[in-house]
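Lab notebook, bench 4. The sequencing result for the construct came back, and we need a structural model before the next group meeting so we can plan mutations. Quick request posted to the team channel:

Model the 3D structure of this chain.
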Amino acid sequence: MDKNEEKKIKVEGDDSEKEQKKQENSEEKESDNKVEEGEKAIDKAEENKESTAEEKLQEQVAELKDRYLRQVAEFDNYKKRTLKEKADLILNGSEKTITAILPILDDFERAIADKNEDPKAIHEGFELIYKKFVKALESLGVKKIDTDGKDFTTDNMEAIAMVPGVADEKKGKVIDCVQAGYTLNDKVIRHAKVAVGQ
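Done. Here's the predicted structure in token form:
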């Protein structure tokens, strides 16, 4: 082999080495570009994640704020409604009572308008009106406190007199009821005024 051929082979070898290096460099650049693109894609994905997470948080905040405002408005309406109902109860609470008593008032007007002079008939008429009145009160929850022969208690009675010299079995018991007591739905609204044996 002569020198030219050796040079040629050497040059061809150098060229192929150069080409191989170029190819390796271009492959490295390509892989670097791919790595860079991958990093950019990851960064973009993270930014998208952050922005979507931020958007979701903002949506949740807006939803909670809306819910809070609705609850506040609902509570405000509830307060106004209950205040109105309370005022109505105060103004018109006695409506049921008045409605129950009006028929009795009508009976009294009829009794007054009647010119009958028979005392027995007048007495019977007043007795009927009295019974009707007691029934109306009972329908409203008002009951008379029973004191006849009962033991004296301060829960629903008030002693206004002590009666000395009574039999042993009458001591501490109600002898006489001076003024009747009443309960409204089991709550004492007027204590019975009684005389108690001593």
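The mean pLDDT is 83.
Will bring this to the meeting.
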